[in-house]
Structures are given as structure tokens and as C-alpha cells.
Prior knowledge:
Elements: H1 4-12, E1 14-20, H2 23-38, E2 42-48, H3 57-62, E3 69-70, H4 80-98, E4 102-106, H5 110-122, E5 126-129, H6 144-154, E6 157-160, H7 163-171, E7 179-181, H8 185-193, E8 214-218, H9 227-242, E9 249-253, H10 258-268, E10 274-277, H11 282-291, E11 292-297, H12 300-309, E12 313-315, H13 323-327, E13 331-333, H14 338-353, H15 371-379
Parallel strand pairs: 1-2, 1-4, 2-3, 4-5, 5-6, 6-7, 8-9, 8-11, 9-10, 11-12, 12-13
Helix pairs in contact: 2-8, 2-15, 4-5, 5-6, 9-10, 9-14
Amino acid sequence: MQSPARATAIATEKTILCLIGTRPEAIKMASVVRELKSRPGVKVVVCVTGQHREMLEPILRFFQIEPQIDLGLMRPDQTLSGLTARLIEGLDEVIRRISPDWVVAQGDTTSVMAAAMAAFYRGVPFAHVEAGLRTGDLSAPFPEEFHRRVADMVAVLHFAPTVQAASKLESEGIPSSQIIVTGNTVVDALLEASKDEPDWLQGPLDSVDPSKPIVVVTAHRRENFGQPMREICESVAELARKFDRDQIQWVFPVHLNPNVKSTVFEILDQVPNVILLEPLEYPWHVQLMKHARLILTDSGGIQEEAPSLGVPVLVLRSTTERPEGVASGQARLVGCRRDDIIREATRELQLSANGLKKQEHPANPYGDGFAGRRIADALLRD
Ligand code: UD1
Ligand code: UDP
């Protein structure tokens, strides 16, 4: 028979299954996992689905996340349906075996939607980190708008990053008792990664001159495949011809999705003054953004990080579920048309050349660095 003290410890122990599929999920779950692990009486099981592989591993290493389970599901150029099918089957078995008190996942990838569905089917409560983001358009971002709606439909706890995201959830009929405004965990991650300044010349940025102005470019959204991605690349090629290397270096860490890589390399490889890089490990990417004068991106996470660094962002999309940065003037929606991108980037660069300085301690509308703590508090409340 167990002693009473031991029996109490077992009775109060909570098991929390944290699911991670892709690069941004690892970055945005890092502070949640760390906080949960620091609390007594909590068993944290980290499961990576392996939706991403090479782009995920360095992030897990950097944040010292050691997954107990790796489903290893990535396939080259995977289809949405094939990946979804593998995820549902794999995650169902994990949830059955671990029988957690909570399943927790962040964002709007296929892994997150499958985690929410598998938890729902097994009757295990699902908690959604970064709940309530909406464009109102199922085709943009595709398929993420669909994924996040599915996740929010079944979630029992919604961790909304902003008041605006919480209002969206309330407008869909989700009771306010199930919504907690936490800030976005990406700010927690960014602050952690900004602590140390690695030696620029000793890493993957050695081909970039930090003493000269830099513009960072990233693009990977599925709805931008094809013509929009071509126009993004053609605009960068044209801008690189317009501003010589002493004026601007155009640095583009290229996503590993073959649909992205093929277009980017076809149009931008060998263009003087454009530096194409492998995906950067997170602290290096943060360093690169810190040194940037401007960022051109269709990434969600980068839109949320840039305000903390005081770097303006031109959003290469027609719509965004992150309107807060646009409202505060830290981001501008420019779409994916070649002429629009060239005009708006030129305008921004002329403004900064005319002495417009970065803000010293800019406010970030997406978070304050304590989101992980608030999320752990809420998960362990009862
Ligand atoms: C996925 C998410 C997207 C998120 C993005 C973050 C979906 C449908 N898409 O898009 O919401 O913004 O991640 O980066 O969930 N690949 C590798 N190694 C990797 C990662 C990807 O080789 O580490 C290649 C593989 O060929 C893989 C392909 O990229 O099949 C596509 O990966 P997938 O996760 O399906 O889509 P992403 O475009 O990465
Ligand atoms: N990022 C990175 N290395 C890179 C490009 C991006 O570490 O080469 C980080 C970036 O700082 C942000 C996150 O990855 O935290 C964004 O991921 P991505 O753009 O792939 O996905 P999204 O946020 O659009 O879902």
C-alpha cells in the first residue's frame, strides 16, 4: 500500500501532452514547455509529429526541448491529405497510450488541427495556444484559416494572444470563461534568443556584411505558390539591381518546401547582391532581423517578432490575421504584386536613408514575454 503522502502526490499529478509539428510551433511552444516543466506535480510529455525535420531539430536543441515521442511523419513534398491521415492515426495512438489531462498545441498547421481532432475524438480536453486569429477568408492563409477554426471549435481552453483575438472568439460564441488573453509566446522566445549575441563571422551569416544595410526576405505560404512567389522573387531581383551592395544587401533564408526553393533559386540564384541562405537556426535569424533595416515577409511569426526589434515589415500577403502590427504602423500589407513590392520597399528604404531611426525600446502589440507563464498557470489552475 502507498503512504498517504505518496498517494496525494499521484492524485494531484497532471499529465500534459505538448504537441509540436513545425519550426514556428517549436519556437512558440518553448516557453510553455519550460514553464510546465518547472512546476511541481506536472508530468510533461513532448511529442513531435515530425511534420518538419531539418527545420525543427535545431530549434528543439536551442530551447533544450527533448521530445519523448517523435512520430517522424515528414515525407518529401508531402500532400495535405496524406500528412493529415498519417497525423490522425499517429496522434490517436499517442493520446490513447499517454491518456493525458490536457493536449496542448500552438497555431494553425496540419499537426495542430490533427492534434485537436485526435484529442476531441478521444474525449481529452484540448488547449489551443494562439487561439482566435482570423482573416475571415478560408483561402488565405490556406489551409491555416481552416485549421485554426477547427482547433478553436474543439478547444476547451483558448489562449488568445491579444484582446482582438479574444473578441473574435467571443463573436463566434465561445464562452469568455474559456478564453484567456496571454500575449503571444513568440515574444517569450525572441527575448530568450536575443540574450546572447553570437559572433557574426563564425556562423551562417558570414557572407553578409553586418556593417552595411540589410533587408531580410522570407516567403513560404501555400497561397503564394506559383505566380505570387515569382513576383515576390522578381521584385527582389529588381530591387537588388536598383540598390547596390553598398546601399543594401538582400538576404533571403530559403524555406525547405520544394515549391518555394525551386522558384526562389530559379529567379534569384546568381543575382548579384542577393544572398540566398539555408533556413537559419533561430538565434541567427534573430540576429539577422535585429540588424535589418526592413523585412519583406509572408511569415506569421516574423510579423509578430519584428515590432520587438523596431524593424518595419512589408507583409507579402493580401490579408493578415495579425492586424495589430498594421494598426500600430509597424507593418504594412503590400500583397504580392511585383510593382507594389518595388514601390513600397523603395519608399521604406528612402525613409530610413533619410535618417528615420529605429525606436530604442519599441512596444510589441503581440506580447510582453510572459505568455508561457500565464498559459501554465491556467492549465494548472484546478
Ligand atoms: C508548414 C505549415 C505552415 C507553416 C510552415 C512553417 C501546414 C499545411 N503548413 O508549411 O502553416 O507556416 O510550416 O514553416 O501545416 N521540408 C523539409 N524539411 C523540413 C521541413 C519541410 O524538407 O524540415 C519540405 C518537405 O519536402 C515537406 C515540405 O517541405 O514535405 C512541406 O512541408 P509542410 O510542413 O507540409 O509545409 P510547409 O510549407 O513547411
Ligand atoms: N525563422 C528561423 N529561421 C529562418 C526563418 C524563420 O528561425 O530561416 C523563425 C522566425 O524568426 C519565426 C519563425 O521561424 O520565429 C517563423 O516561421 P515560419 O515563417 O516558417 O512560419 P509562420 O510563422 O509563417 O507559420
